[in-house]
Design goal:
Strand content: 15-25%
Number of strands: 7
CATH class of one domain: Alpha Beta
CATH topology of one domain: Transcription Regulator spoIIAA
Order of helices and strands: EEHEEHEHEEHH
Number of helices: 5
Radius of gyration: 16 Å
CATH superfamily of one domain: STAS domain
Structural class: alpha/beta
Length: 174
Amino acid sequence: MALQQSIIRVHQHDQTVTFQPEGEATMRDSPAVRQFAERCFTSGLITLYVDLRRCTHMDSTFLGTLLFLKRLVERREEGHFALLSPSPQCQRLLQQMRLEKVFTIMSLEEPTASVWTDLQSELTDIAAFKRNVVQAHQELGRLDGPAGETFRELAAQLAQELASEKLEGRQEKN
């Protein structure tokens, strides 16, 4: 089965940024979404939305990245983070993982097509990509219940593998 290509669109208006994944939102898309949002936070972003009406699936790394961004907004003690109009597939996934109680979910009108810009998901920094995967799973590991337990174990394993790679890289340089 071929992997469905995803598109992440972004719309920015004043102090609000909306991301809209179309198709499958995956670990490949996560760093670009995170980096764009972090850049916006430094310039005064207050509201962050993720419009899921065109999204057919989110992998664990993308979900963990959304949790990371939600917590980033909450730590700032100002602003708002919400998921918008989840597709039936995304709604089912959020319910299965009990995330519909973690995220604010709203229904808003979709901005017109002319105001979206495609976000480029280029994997140029492999180390940053791997760190994002680990951090995303650590965020999922903070969840209560069985899902959190599973992701805590996975995050610990991924962090250990990343640390081993760093150690091996240092030893090869010496």
